[in-house]
Design brief:
ten-stranded mixed beta sheet, about 575 residues, alpha+beta, Dipeptide-binding Protein, domain 1
Length: about 575
């Protein structure tokens, strides 16, 4: 938010009520309700039920390539308009959506072959319809796989289905996905991982000119998909209007219309929410500061509710490549990294950042609602805050205090470490970590990037430690795969920016990727966690929390928001949302 002009306020020091008044006075908010077509009165005299969802990011169009970025909220509510083979239940577990059942070994729809290949067989619901009324068929998914494999349409969001060898429709409602090996993520085919496209609307054009195909209005203004609400006004990606799709497979939606409105500043979104011009704030829109302030105000007024769930792990990533690591000792000596971790009061940091929020401990990378949480354990709990022990570990590795109490290395040089934020979002965490290190005699340098965080080379050659948030469950481990190191040879495209390599962990990651039984997955996740806790290529701080918000009288999110396990699940029950 620009810090100029008489009406700018920092959110924290003032109340939301004052912020609303300030924004109204400046003419920058709250935003009026979108008008579009005038609300029609039905035959009973009732006015249509319309609900407005606020997000931070606009969208360029529809398809997984436009939904790669998980922040901002648009991804979180995409099941308003698009659903896939599966979604999630109230506990974050996979459940069928366009499919009738989940493939399973017991029912013979998950097939393992002696040569190591695997098939997943999906039966589609015979009552599933595209929003133009055409039946959704297995042929549509076979076409979608072909489209998603086209180089011009490759998307990181679709990386799981792109590992399949082939996808075929054996009849109108039977889809067979062929895999070269057992693949534990083969069942997670939600709307992002296997985005459905209608063959009857796109097939002929796809087999023609590719540039013309990419420019089709289908991908923006004329979008037709599988969800409970159909697009009627794209609104330049800033304000999309969707109307109820009466033939939705889970039943006729209760709302008549849903509007997804982009308000690019979280403070302004909060003000609009309090003013009643937005009914719901989507997942991944509010910081902890904003959410906690809203929570505390609404506890008193009863005007709305804040819902929270675990998001991903926030941690410090150590630089382990000696050509960039400074001080070099940290990249080579795990005792120093252990001391650096034990010098930081992680409990105090998470309480400062997320006061009174449950399930914020970073001792495990598995979400608490995941059935494997107990099996995987809490590998980083072995490093409690203990500055005296930290100093002992430093001394054992040759770092000692000089006469001024500052740490010096074996050569008598002061110990200096850069603490960098991957985004300016983490500036407070950068300062808190730096402050704890100063207390034990380290001289940290705090760096908040002026360059884009998506500059892959920049985020891979940091000298000390970078504070960032990335992943949960299996996806958390992807950042430590030694075969995915970001280097100049691969144009810095690898996801392992800290350059950690451990052949034992790589082997376990491969085994996790092929494990189909929950108990086996849990055992392997524990093994991976123990390897990381022993080597400490990272310094876990806390489990980030993401928030959804809804005004009083909005029947949404109340019963199962905390159970959401992945991006997009927030709107999985949009068909039963309503307002009093």
């Amino acid at each position: 938010m620009p810090r100029s002009g008489p009406c700018w306020h920092r959110f924290g020091p003032i109340s939301l009520g004052l912020l609303v008044a300030a924004l109204v006075g400046c003419g920058t908010g709250p935003f009026p309700r979108p008008t579009g077509a005038a609300p029609r009165v039905d035959s009973t005299g009732a006015r249509p039920q319309i609900l407005t969802v606020g997000v931070l990011n606009s969208i360029a169009g529809y398809g997984p390539w436009n939904f790669n970025i998980t922040g901002g909220g648009a991804n979180s509510v995409a099941e308003i308009h698009t659903v896939g083979l599966v979604s999630e239940d109230a506990h974050g577990n996979l459940e069928p959506r366009l499919a009738t059942r989940m493939p399973s070994l017991e029912e013979g729809t998950l097939v393992l072959y002696p040569d190591g290949r695997m098939d997943t067989i999906w039966k589609l619901r015979p009552d599933a319809r595209w929003q133009d009324g055409a039946p959704i068929t297995a042929g549509d998914f076979a076409f979608s796989w072909e489209l998603l494999n086209e180089p011009d349409f490759l998307s990181a969001a679709s990386k799981e289905i792109l590992q399949a060898d082939a996808v075929e429709a054996t009849d109108a409602t039977t889809l067979v996905v062929h895999w070269s090996r057992p693949f534990s993520r083969a069942l997670g085919m939600d709307f992002r991982r296997f985005w459905p496209f209608p063959n009857h609307l796109l097939g002929e054009a796809f087999r023609g000119d590719r540039q013309t195909f990419k420019a089709l209005p289908y991908f923006s203004t004329d979008y037709v998909s599988t969800g409970p609400f159909r697009l009627v006004d794209f609104g330049l990606g800033e304000q999309q209007v969707y109307e109820r799709f009466d033939d939705y497979l889970l039943g006729r939606p209760k709302l008549d219309r849903v509007i997804i409105k982009t308000i690019s500043n979280a403070n302004v979104l909060a003000a609009n929410l309090q003013a009643g011009t937005v009914d719901i704030a989507a997942d991944k829109t509010f910081s902890g500061d904003i959410a906690v302030q809203l929570r505390d105000q609404w506890r008193e007024s009863g005007e709305g509710s804040i819902y929270s769930r675990q998001d991903n792990v926030l941690y410090g990533l150590f630089q382990l490549d000696p050509q960039w690591a400074r001080p070099l000792d940290v990249s080579q000596d795990v005792q120093l990294r252990r001391g650096l971790l034990m010098a930081v009061d992680r409990d105090a940091i998470r309480e400062a950042m997320l006061p009174g929020i449950a399930d914020t401990s970073g001792d495990s990378f598995i979400t608490v609602q995941d059935s494997r949480f107990g099996l995987a354990g809490q590998p980083f709990a072995r490093y409690p805050y203990d500055p005296a022990r930290a100093v002992e570990l430093f001394a054992a590795s040759g770092w000692r205090r000089d006469g001024d109490g500052r740490l010096v290395d074996r050569d008598g040089k002061r110990v200096e470490i850069e603490v960098r934020g991957a985004l300016d979002t983490w500036s407070r965490e950068v300062s808190l970590v730096a402050d704890y290190w100063r207390r034990v005699g380290i001289e940290p340098t705090e760096t908040i990037p002026a360059r884009a965080a998506r500059d892959n080379e920049y985020v891979s050659v940091f000298p000390g430690i970078v504070i960032r948030a990335r992943g949960s469950n299996e996806t958390f481990l992807d950042a430590f795969d030694g075969r995915a190191q970001a280097t100049s040879e691969n144009r810095w495209a690898g996801g392992n920016n800290g350059h950690y390599g451990n052949a034992a962990l790589d082997r376990v990651l491969d085994e996790i990727g092929e494990a189909l039984v929950v108990n086996q997955q849990g055992r392997l996740l524990r093994e991976a966690g123990d390897i990381l806790a022993n080597d400490l290529p990272l310094m876990p701080l806390y489990y980030r929390t993401t928030f959804g918000a809804a005004l009083k009288g909005i029947n949404a999110l109340k019963d199962d928001y905390a159970g959401i396990g992945d991006v997009g699940g927030m709107a999985r029950n949009a068909h039963v949302w309503s307002r009093e």
